[in-house]
Amino acid sequence: xxxxxxxxxxxxxxxxxxxxxxxxxxxxxxxxxxxxxxxxxxxxxxxxxxxxxxxxxxxxxxxxxxxxxxxxxxxxxxxxxxxxxxxxxxxxxxxxxxxxxxxxxxxxxxxxxxxxxxxxxxxxxxxxxxxxxxxxxxxxxxxxxxxxxxxxxxxxxxxxxxxxxxxxxxxxxxxxxxxxxxxxxxxxxxxxxxxxxxxxxxxxxxxxxxxxxxxxxxxxxxxxxxxxxxxxxxxxxxxxxxxxxxxxxxxxxxxxxxxxxxxxxxxxxxxxxxxxxxxxxxxxxxxxxxxxxxxxxxxxxxxxxxxxxxxxxxxx
Length: 316
Hints:
The chain is of the alpha+beta class. It has helices at 13-43, 104-111, 113-122, 258-262, 266-287, 290-295, and strands at 45-49, 64-68, 82-86, 126-127, 132-139, 144-147, 155-156, 159-160, 184-187, 192-196, 218-219, 223-232, 238-239. The protein folds into 2 domains: 10-43 and 260-301; 45-94 and 107-256, Ribbon (Umud Fragment, subunit A). It is built from 6 helices and 13 strands.
């Protein structure tokens, strides 16, 4: 005969304790997941939302792209890369730093919670604002970039670019918005890039910033990373490779190494490594669930009421 519980309607004490333990661990798991996501966003990969048509048809307005922040620690920036960069101090005036608020509560909020909320919001995609830009790299340090030759093509170190695969339909290599250069002859100095948009007729790129402090060039140290994937909307999902025209001998770093080819996938590897602690904690929580402990024989055996003989082994 089985021993009866004092209150059959109530769950066993151990089961209630395990449920409370899981509820206590759940917030910890969520915090760890959030921390991992923020670390990945800060150091590995970040999402941006395209606000304008300067890179059409490659990037449409509203597309969400992933930007690899690690790739340029393993290889140099190459012609044909699509990069996101901060234009503050070069294309745009440096952001003014206003006086700190006299209210200590406001200062504390700005230094802590505001930054936290901005970081969490950025996990779902940061819009490119007045200082962040996305363009295609045409010239890297040491390149001589000219528009255009007798065939109407841009040349890099005398090698013509055939750009039909990514230029906006109807655009020519020298198409330019009002006030920008149609033709140019640039030698890219060390530490700088010459960049253009794929929709040349409307793109505000290096050609329209020649009056700026760096003559339209972008400092390499202002590059946030390389756009390598469109993740939204689903109809636009695709990898963003370097067009084949940039693989010609004599253009930038055409002889890319095997590490360069693998670099766009480094965020995936880093994400997998970062997810190990979270996976371990989840498995630990599952191992402690009552039904697993019972199967493993680690739950305490049922107690019998005083005065009753112990149950036979096969009834316990």
